[in-house]
Amino acid sequence: MVKNFIISGSGGQGILSIGSILANIFMLSGKFVSYCPCYGAEMRGGAVNCEINMSDCELYSLQNSKVDFVVALNQTSFNKFISKVKKNGTIIVNSSMAKIEKTRDDIKYIFAPLTQEALKLGNIKVANSIALGILSKILGNLPLDAVKNAYKKILKDKTELITKNLEAYMLGLNYIQEGII
């Protein structure tokens, strides 16, 4: 089984961090993974995305014309990557920063006010972790120990930030089952 992902947004939204965390979750779960970040010279505000490929066997191709999942944290990302979602694929959209607009009828849309929910948690920077929790629920709940270890590996000694991100992840994980979206 091969699954392909694009996570996209603006610099400062933690796109590369959450992509790296997702790749590490897969690796810690015994999967083969490729992770390819893409960003411009801008530090904050510029376009940023990353592609993650996950498989049960070795990967031989790193780039895909179509992907199974897109996470778009802003309008620009939604506009740019909606066409890359495979038929029957899924796009998770931050409805706090993108208009709710279904432009295709062959994919699944999940609109969630990620930025708004992150603000309720007291840290706008955890919107990406809410999205990762939603994605995890769709994938069938990634092993929680792998999730915790991936956050610890990427965020290193930032204990408070790890705790807040895990809280946001759990919020996202529970969104679908609680019918909030």
In short:
By secondary structure, the protein is α/β, with parallel strands linked by helices. The protein has helices at residues 15-28, 75-81, 114-120, 127-139, 144-155, 159-178; strands at 2-10, 32-39, 47-55, 67-72, 85-94, 108-112. The protein has a single domain (2-178), classed as Pyruvate-ferredoxin Oxidoreductase, domain 3, CATH 3.40.920.
Architecture in CATH? 3-Layer(aba) Sandwich
CATH fold topology: Pyruvate-ferredoxin Oxidoreductase, domain 3
- Rounded to an integer in angstroms, the radius of gyration calculated over CA atoms is 15 Å
The counted number of beta strands is 6
Q: What sequence of helices (H) and strands (E) makes up the elements? A: EHEEEHEEHHHH
What is the approximate shape? globular
Secondary structure elements and their pairing?
Blueprint: E1 2-10, H1 15-28, E2 32-39, E3 47-55, E4 67-72, H2 75-81, E5 85-94, E6 108-112, H3 114-120, H4 127-139, H5 144-155, H6 159-178
Q: What can you see in these coordinates?
A:
The chain has helices at 15-28, 75-81, 114-120, 127-139, 144-155, 159-178, and strands at residues 2-10, 32-39, 47-55, 67-72, 85-94, 108-112. Strand 4 (67-72), helix 2 and strand 5 form a beta-alpha-beta unit. The model has no long low-confidence stretch (mean pLDDT 91). The longest helix has 20 residues, at 159-178. With 181 residues, the protein is an alpha/beta fold. 40% of the residues lie in helices and 26% in strands. Helix 1 crosses helix 5 and helix 3 packs across helix 4 (127-139). The chain has one domain: Pyruvate-ferredoxin oxidoreductase, PFOR, domain III (Pyruvate-ferredoxin Oxidoreductase, domain 3, 3-Layer(aba) Sandwich), CATH 3.40.920.10.
